[in-house]
Amino acid sequence: FFGISPREASVMDPQQRLLLTASWEALERAGIDPATLRGEQAGVFVGSSDQGYGAAAAAAPDRVEGHMLTGGSGAVLSGRIAYTLGFEGPAVTIDTMCSSSLVALHLAVQALRQDECGIALAAGATVMATPRNFVEFSRQRGLAPDGRCKPFAAGADGTGWGEGVGVLMLERLSDARRLGHPVLAVVRGSAVNQDGASNGLTAPNGPSQERVIRAALANARLTPDLVDVVEAHGTGTTLGDPIEAQALLATYGQGRDAQTPLWLGSVKSNIGHLQASSGVAGVIKMVLAMRHGILPKLLHLDEPTSHVDWSSGAVELLTENRDWPETGRPRRAGVSSFGGSGTNAHIVLEQAPASEPETEPDPEDAPETSSVPAALPVFAPGATLPFVFSGRGADGLAAQAARLTAFAGASENAVRPRDLAWSLAATRAAFENRAVALGTDHTDLTRAAVALTSGAGDPALVTGAFDVAPDGVVFVFPGQGAQWVGMGRELWEVSPVFAASMVACGEALAPFVGWSLEDVVRSGGGLVDVDVVQPVSWAVMVSLAAVWRAVGVVPSVVVGHSQGEIAAAVVAGGLSLEDGARVVALRSRAIRAIAGRGGMVSVSLPLAEVEELLAGWVGRIDVAAVNGPGSVVVAGDADALDELVARCEL
């Protein structure tokens, strides 16, 4: 899938493999085709601590020599993502032990704010390739005998390891809104600091934790009482948990109403201590909690630890699931992560703002092709939709079809078919093996997907293998002659995007013509007149381009033949819609005015043979255009052209 040879993949740290997969999924979930970011200033910030895979791979066979250095290097965790996806912004691997991924998130936010990159991936990865951490923490008596984390509990007896990878996709809020990407939450503020010379290299330091919390709140321009919950570091140790709880009581617990305490939880009670990736796991938990309006309870909590003076501030443990009510302001959460290296991080998250009304598209993102609003649906409800599948190889295509079948079945009532069709066409990478199924609902999609998976045929399913063009799509606009009676009529009915563009074209043409664009398209009348057919064809071409753009097919190049050049110029942004309408209307009117003074004939012969043929009509017929190696247009007197046609038909 990623173009990595089996030999190299066999000695790649599993963290590299999982990060590649999760990064791809994070981008697609954000509605971004990863291929569109190649060559962009995109950043990668990965938090991870060495888990000894490189040393374990030392026993690998000789045939993989040369790949072991990059396969086991922590630096390559971020570099591999940037290289594979073609990112050209900063790519950094951070190792501060347990706080690594939250520090990575902080650095990603800083890079976005400083315009070092336009989009960033912040990730954490932990795969324990060796038992080293189990051995070391067992010797320190830091592991729970039953393997369960019991944060802030009286029965806390050590941490319990977990493994996992998490990836967050970040961009500036203004960019996300402009580009139509879903916003799950906002990073309101963040801070990182160090314990310094404290009570031990790996021992938590309460005053330092207080300082990093206050710094994050200051960065967020918030007071502590405006934060509802904190996702704690909460490892379940008898040393660390009381220190962290007292720091939270001294910061968030002061000056707030006892009726609205700070709620405290930790995802480590659910999935264990993910070490370097624990911070990003806490962020994901809080984002989900915000979106669902539920504060998940702490597990394995018999009673609060007696080593904390819980009466010293308004902080309460989440002993049960609680509703997270709307209060007239955004929901907010803090997330803490403290590293054994002494590096601390705290993030303040805020509920995603309500969507703003759609604005006019940015000229750099969409040239002046039409005045179609960005939010307008491509297809009307009930219209026949294209569901696009693609995969690397036939097996990859079948696997994607199987996943879509499961997804459609699980979310039938939640996802509109037209939204699903748009996402498949516009926000997913297009691979070599493809299929398109036509249908109106989830039932049609499921039937086609099952047929694709099983290899059975389906009349609504088209499959094939194609070369993926690295240079993008070319829109080609034809000249007169490509039209037919009824063109655009059905699309006007089923596609709001096409209809809106045609209305805009009709309004732009109105000052220069004496007929209605909609009437001509619906009736088919008048298409024999050059001053009607050319403006109508222009409007249809411009509107078809608007439909393609709306489903994510954006041209890298446009080219037009004859009057198709006018539509191409509008789609490329070289002409405004109004100027394009004026040019095509006045040009076709001029052609009609000179009608009857000659003619044109297309001759299906090479240029040299045509020139030889015209020797008998010197001064009466000339070469007007060379359309191709075997297609030449000649022009001249009508009588002479009739003679030429008769000669050619002999």
Automatic annotation (TrEMBL):
PROSITE patterns in the cross-refs: KS3_2
UniProt region (Disordered), positions on chain: 323-342
InterPro entries (alphabetical): Ac_transferase_dom_sf, Acyl_transferase_dom, Acyl_Trfase/lysoPLipase, Ketoacyl_synth_C, Ketoacyl_synth_N, Malonyl_transacylase_ACP-bd, PKS_assoc, PKS_Beta-ketoAc_synthase_dom
Presence of the UniProt keyword Zinc in the record: no
Keywords in alphabetical order: Acyltransferase, Multifunctional enzyme, Transferase
Signal peptide interval: none
GO biological process annotation, one example: fatty acid biosynthetic process
Ketosynthase family 3 (KS3) domain boundaries: 1-351
GO MF annotation: an example: fatty acid synthase activity
Origin superkingdom: Bacteria
PANTHER family per the UniProt record, alphabetical: FATTY ACID SYNTHASE, INACTIVE PHENOLPHTHIOCEROL SYNTHESIS POLYKETIDE SYNTHASE TYPE I PKS1-RELATED
Protein name per its UniProtKB record: Polyketide synthase
